[in-house]
Design brief:
The longest helix has 16 residues. 41% of the residues lie in helices and 14% in strands. By secondary structure, the chain is of the alpha/beta class. The protein has nine helices and seven strands, in the order βαβαβαβαβαβααβαα.
Length: 227
């Protein structure tokens, strides 16, 4: 019996997730299932590199299924003792800012598995970029066994109290399993409320100044916003 091919409007998906597997088996299962769903839809994986935690599980699932894996990792974290060995293609970058910019640039949508501070920081940044009109790529939460329920409740509270516009609440798509989430991302239609929709960001090149500044440089910032 021939395998059914599911066609996608995306080419590659950026996955944010923990460098730990967490304490519950459902998180590990969800990472593997997401990798298998990406393979079934012929989608490439873009992630933060390494082979530890949920990051390792999702990347290995895609790699073993014959999918293309692109791991983008700062040079300072490339030591195998820190992150393990990245499968697939490895792209070293200068720092964390460039890592996020490159991950976004090479992806058509974003998915967050359970994770900690780093996962939340990456997730909220791409949501903010969508809010500002820098990109209109779908952003999905894989809400495994209610892991992100409190985050979604917080966002709803921010909407109720006037800190997030109701139209911007729909930037985030969530589902309890990989198949349902990816399908929702496929059907996602961005809503531009006209406030800062499709904002154009320009950064002056500072050729005669030091490239490295506090936390970031002009070249990196220009890359980040030109998605």
């Amino acid at each position: 019996m021939e395998e059914k091919v599911v066609y996608s409007r995306f080419k590659s998906v950026c996955v944010f997730c923990g460098s730990s597997t967490g304490k519950r088996k459902c998180y590990r299962d969800a990472a593997i299932e997401l990798g298998q769903e990406l393979v079934a839809r012929r989608l490439d994986l873009v992630y933060g590199g390494g082979s530890i935690g949920l990051m390792g599980l999702v990347s290995q699932a895609v790699h073993l299924g014959g999918g293309h894996v692109l791991g983008i990792i700062p040079r300072t974290l490339m030591c195998k003792e820190i992150t393990g060995e990245t499968v697939g293609e490895v792209r070293p970058v200068a720092d964390m800012h460039q890592r996020k910019a490159e991950m976004a640039r090479h992806s058509d949508c974003f998915i967050a598995l359970p994770g900690g501070y780093g996962t939340l920081e990456e997730l909220l940044e791409v949501i903010t970029w969508a809010q500002l009109g820098i990109h209109d790529k779908p952003v999905g939460l894989l809400n495994v066994d209610g892991y992100y329920n409190y985050l979604l409740t917080f966002i709803d509270k921010a909407v109720d109290d006037g800190f997030i516009k109701p139209s911007q609440r729909h930037i985030i798509v969530s589902a309890p399993n990989a198949k349902e989430l990816v399908q929702k991302l496929e059907e996602y239609v961005p809503v531009h409320d006209g406030v800062i929709a499709k904002a154009r960001w320009e950064v002056e090149k500072q050729q005669h100044q030091q490239q490295q500044q506090v936390g970031f440089n002009a070249t990196t910032l220009q890359t980040e916003v030109a998605l």
